[in-house]
Design brief:
9 strands; Cupin domain-containing protein; alpha+beta; three-stranded antiparallel β-sheet
Length: 125
């Protein structure tokens, strides 16, 4: 059976706002994210349908809190909560938050391609 742990997952993203470690298990990507600063990443999702994340996520908040904003409501998840983030959300993250999240790899890759382009454009501008 495929498995991983945070200690074994390679460091894939190390920015002032976030540290991310990601491993593919079957058709899913497991993400271990540590958020170092409060962040509203909404501009990074521009260009996706509704300018919102279209990838579903299942996860657990290890510490801190995360808010998923939908067009008609917000969902707040705090330490100890397990959640499902449906497509069409915008995350709002806070310093000190740690998440373990499971996402379909193909949908995550499509979303991250847009996020990556927007991030590159923001850094260049």
């Amino acid at each position: 059976m495929p498995r991983t742990s945070k200690a074994e997952a390679p460091l894939s993203l190390d920015e002032p706002e976030i540290e991310g470690r990601y491993v593919e298990l079957g058709e899913y990507t497991v993400g271990y994210e540590t958020h170092k600063a409060d962040l509203d990443p909404a501009p990074l999702f521009r260009g996706l349908p509704g300018d919102r994340c279209q990838c579903p996520h299942w996860g657990t908040v290890v510490s801190g809190k995360v808010v998923f904003r939908y067009a008609d409501h917000d969902e707040v998840y705090q330490a100890g909560d397990t959640y499902y983030g449906a497509p069409g959300h915008l995350p709002l993250v806070f310093a000190g938050t740690e998440l373990v999240e499971f996402s379909p790899t193909a949908a995550l890759a499509a979303t991250m391609a847009v996020v990556g382009r927007n991030l590159a454009a923001a850094k260049a501008g």
